[in-house]
Amino acid sequence: MAENVLAVYPGTFDPITLGHEDVVRRATQLFGRVIVAVAAGHHKKTMFSLEERIAMVREAVKPYPQVSVESFSGLLRDFVVQRGGKAMVRGLRAVTDFDYEFQLAGMNRTLMPEVETVFLTPSDKFQFISSTFVREIATLGGEVDKFVSADVYARLCQKVAGPAAG
Q: Is 62 a catalytic residue?
């Protein structure tokens, strides 16, 4: 393990899935410290507010004392450099992710030559899970409890039930 290396795992995490959690677990085996950087999501309409997403991620990473959770807006480059990050963790589920992530890694290398991008794949049982699928299935009344933690599942159920259930 690179004990003195800080890695940043950025994403919208709307919501955090078991696949995301698996990538966090894998990152803790490689890096001494990991920041899960929750994007404000100004470019996306999110189901959960920034505060809700941060709370869900904090709950999910409780087992890992070397993991902290912070929000960011603006350029990811600025966030990573300001915190002294030396690695950026990106999750890859399938070949379709690779093309986009490869381009992003190239752009990030130009913006942050001192920061390495590390691709991690989740366990086979999580490779097909995406936050987008989870939100869509939950909104349409489907079961998503196999794809997210119990805490996230409860929050999803409450969110799709609407204000009357809250």
A: no
- CA dist 154 and 134 (Å) reads 13
- 76-129 pLDDT, tens per residue? 999 999 999 999 999 988 777 788 888 888 898 999 999 999 999 999 999 889
Q: Annotated catalytic residue: which of 53, 131, 135, 159?
A: 131
Annotated active-site residue 20? The verdict is yes
Q: Is 146 a catalytic residue?
A: no
Active-site residue, 131 included: yes
Catalytic residue among 25, 93, 130, 149: 93
CB atoms within 10 A of CB 103: 10
pTM of the model: 0.91
Query: Measured between alpha carbons, how far is 88 from 133 in angstroms, rounded to an integer?
Result: 24
> Domain 2-161 in CATH: superfamily?
HUPs (3.40.50.620)
Closest CA to 66 of 118, 27, 38, 39: 27
Side-chain-facing half-sphere of 19: CA atoms under 13 Å: 25
